[in-house]
Specification:
With 432 residues, the protein is an alpha+beta fold. 39% of the residues lie in helices and 23% in strands. The strands form four sheets. Strands 9, 10, 12, 13, 14, 16 and 17 form a seven-stranded mixed β-sheet that branches. A six-stranded mixed β-sheet has the order 1-8-7-3-4-5, with no helix packed on it. A two-stranded antiparallel sheet has the order 2-6. It is rod-shaped, with a radius of gyration of 48 Å. The chain binds 2-acetamido-2-deoxy-beta-D-glucopyranose (2 copies). One 2-acetamido-2-deoxy-beta-D-glucopyranose (NAG) binds next to loops.
Length: 432
């Protein structure tokens, strides 16, 4: 009896020490890229000769989620883990690892309990989840340019392989010279520019179609490298585009020359007329001469100063006032011309004076319209309007000079009936 008891006790003791030994694995990781998840459970001292002697249980936390009964060779996962399975054939080699679909995997502590006929043991491994983001692909745009004419500036950021289904998955950051200037948080649908770039914005709706382009006021834009960083749930990437400032000429070179030349010609025509009047009208009073000369001088100075301010280049206050000094003194020119028509002894030729006056006013109005349309921005159409106006003014000033010459010649020639003056008489009859 006693020896039997001792034997039994010995057997129990040996049973207690005969633990199954496991390869200790603290944790394993799975990512969004895994299709299936494997939680390892490796026994190093399996002695069982047949599956019938084996039993495996898996727990998540305290909850049993999977049973394998070797006696019946039967696997039983619970419904939430319906895809969970082990490979029975591997059991006898000590492998009781659990596999399941990624979609059913839940991060947490998984415990593997293995039982043989006389021995048992368990090991716990943590399953961790990590997001692996793949690269978003961007359309490379090395640089974009803006000029004084851009009211807003757009820095493009275009990506092609987005998989986001909702704005909530998206996050956008914009950097200027390594300093963040703009954030968009899709989860909150909230945009946050920094104060230096308070006008910056993106169009959230365009994000889902692959655009995170940044818009901002021209006045806040600074030339340099802008980096767009886009992050989705599973994708991310960035692209850098340089913003360049290009000084754009306000007017093209040809337009510029014409804008200066026409008023200069007008002024020369005026002086021509002035000389003609003084030469052929000895009875003009000193006061009238002084008025004509002083006003003409002012006109000339204004136009010359205007032309100096109006040097070629991009739009600026100085150039704009230069253009003003070139265009607006046309008023003086018109008044002077009228004054000359009045003092010239051109009796009976009122019609011509009036026609020239109307043409002159028309030229002025066209110039002024062109000029006001050209403020800050000048499309070629507006430029030609301005030039036409100035051209008309110059042309009328020329006709005025011709008229003045003919009047003067006729006036001085008629009483003498000088045959040499015949050409001018023809001119006179033409003009008259
Ligand atoms: C500036 O304006 C031009 C013409 O409208 C446009 O083509 C260009 O893309 C703009 N530049 C920027 C940086 O927005
Ligand atoms: C996000 O906000 C913008 C303006 O702040 C709004 O126009 C847009 O409809 C919003 N989108 C969503 C999905 O809420």
């Amino acid at each position: 009896m006693w020896p039997l008891l001792v034997l039994l006790l010995l057997g129990l003791a040996s049973c207690g020490s005969a633990q199954l030994l496991f390869v200790k694995i603290e944790s394993v990781e799975y990512t969004n890229e895994n299709k299936t998840v494997l939680i390892p459970c490796l026994v190093t001292n399996v002695e069982a000769k047949s599956l019938k002697e084996m039993f495996v249980k898996w727990k998540l936390g305290d909850k049993h989620i999977f049973y394998y009964n070797g006696d019946k060779n039967e696997s039983k996962p619970i419904s939430e883990f319906s895809s969970a399975h082990i490979i029975p054939d591997a059991l006898l080699k000590g492998n009781a690892s659990l596999m399941m679909d990624k979609s059913q995997a839940v991060p947490g502590n998984y415990t593997c309990e293995v039982t043989e006929l006389t021995r048992e043991g368990e090991t716990t491994t943590e399953l961790k989840y990590r997001v692996v983001k793949t690269q978003l692909l961007f359309t490379t745009i090395k640089s974009v340019e803006y000029t004084n004419n851009n009211k807003t500036v757009l820095i493009p950021c275009l990506f092609t392989n987005s998989v986001a289904k909702s704005l909530k998955e998206m996050f956008v950051k914009w950097k200027f010279r390594n300093k963040y200037i703009f954030y968009y948080n899709g989860d909150r649908n909230e945009s946050k520019p920094t104060s230096d770039f308070s006008s910056a914005y993106i169009v959230p709706g365009a994000l889902l179609t692959g655009s995170a382009s940044l818009m901002m006021d021209k006045n806040q834009a600074a030339p340099g490298n802008y980096t767009c960083e886009v992050s989705e749930l599973t994708r991310e990437g960035n692209t850098t585009t340089e913003l360049k400032y290009i000084a754009a000429s306000w007017f093209s070179a040809n337009d510029h020359i014409l804008i200066i030349i026409f008023p200069m010609l007008s002024v020369l025509m005026f002086w021509g007329s002035d000389i003609v009047i003084l030469k052929y009208n000895s009875n003009i009073t000193k006061e009238k001469i002084i008025i004509l000369s002083v006003a003409g001088l002012i006109l000339s100075i204004l136009v010359i100063v205007g032309a100096i301010f109006f040097i070629p280049g991009e739009y600026s206050r100085k150039r704009a006032s230069g253009l003003g000094l070139i265009v607006i003194p046309t008023v003086i020119l018109i008044l002077l011309q009228m004054y000359m028509f009045m003092i010239a002894p051109a009796n009976g030729k009122r019609t011509i004076s009036i026609i020239l006056f109307i043409a002159q006013v028309l030229g002025l109005l066209i110039s002024l319209a062109g000029q006001s349309l050209c403020v800050s921005e000048c499309t070629p159409v507006h430029g030609s309007l301005l030039i036409s106006g100035l051209g008309i003014t110059a042309l009328v000033a020329f006709l005025g000079l011709v008229y003045m010459i003919s009047v003067a010649l006729v006036h001085s020639a008629l009483p003498l009936l000088d045959p040499k003056q015949v050409p001018s008489r023809i001119l006179y009859s033409l003009v008259g």
